[in-house]
Design a protein that fits this description.
It contains 18 helices and no strands. It is an all-alpha fold.
Amino acid sequence: MLERICSWKREFRVEGAAATFLLVGYIFIPIAPAPVNLALFFSLLSAGFSRRIRERYKALFRQKVFICFFVLYAVLLLSSLYGAGSWILKLHYLGKYLEIGYMPLLAAIIYKRKYRDATLRAFSLVMIVTLIASYLGYFGIHLDIPNLGWSPSGPAHNPTVFKLEITHNFFMAFAVFLWLQGVLQSKNNWEKFSYLLLFLLGSANIFWMVGGRTGYLTFFSLIFVLLIEKITIKRGALGFFIFLITITFIYQYVPKFHNQIHQGLTEMQNWTPNVGSTSSIGIRLDFWNSSLRLIQDSPIFGSGIAGYEEGYKKIQSGSNLAPSVNPHNQYLLFLAQIGWFGLFVFGWLNYVIWVGSYRLERSWGLWVRGIVLGYATANIFNSLLLDFSEGIFFSASLAIAFSTLLDNDSCNRERELV
């Protein structure tokens, strides 16, 4: 009996360590990349010593959402067996997409609700610190934390805190979405007021202070998720009317937003194919145009996982096109790498995630649908699953949300272990 109790205590400590490492990794996603990899490595390593978590691994294959993640990464693995490019380059891309493959393994680690809830609270807290640092930068006060690799890098007129303005605004849009849910769900007036203040300050940070257009699109797509919740014709019409008034007001009276949108439209109008642009939108259009040429060569299964980079080098050679390793569009990148078949698998994955979100608690379901629609929109202008922070945030957030599906599925086996 004593031996059984000691074994249970060791098991509990191992499980707690794995979940804690995962939580630490999740906290650092919007701060610094290096600690994220380290924390996730130790999380998965610790999980391997837990019998309870290993039992949850078996339950992964009884849930469609996790199977779809495995299938998508299997397609990416198979695409490394054909197409141009060295094995070093192919392994580089397989590593870039690795979070897709281990997403289900992360889900098995989160075995208690307190850890799930802690991740969102931690993300909210980190983004509050980010928001404060951005406002300080706006007023000329820089808050540097070099030991964490996190340092406000933008000037006062564009006070980004983490990496580029695209990344800053993208993560801030999700934080604002979380705070708006807090406004709508909180019953305590002080809590409601605090969330409302954070929502307003975060929204102002996105539109008034930082110039990432991807954040604008992500913000509106996340708001749309809330609008379609329990939608009726009356609510839909009212929501659409409010949306038009809001976006018109922002466009007219917020200089940063107005200038960014106007500049983007001007760059789009001035773009000429196959000439070589130097503007942000023009360069993207060059990438997209080149991608379409690559896709025509291998439309069904793509040109392999290194196919875009190798193919674009040939197109760029002898031209004025800007160098590129991805087309800044996840859909075109998948089409170039794994073809229409692979893009269908990715679309099916998103469909399964969306449908599966209705099996979760309301707040988690909203969060999951926000991630699906936010990424679906932002992926038009960025290859987010290829980017380190955004890719891990996608997989880890969904793993934490869907980890609850494993609780009932493996609870009987867990009791036997105890």
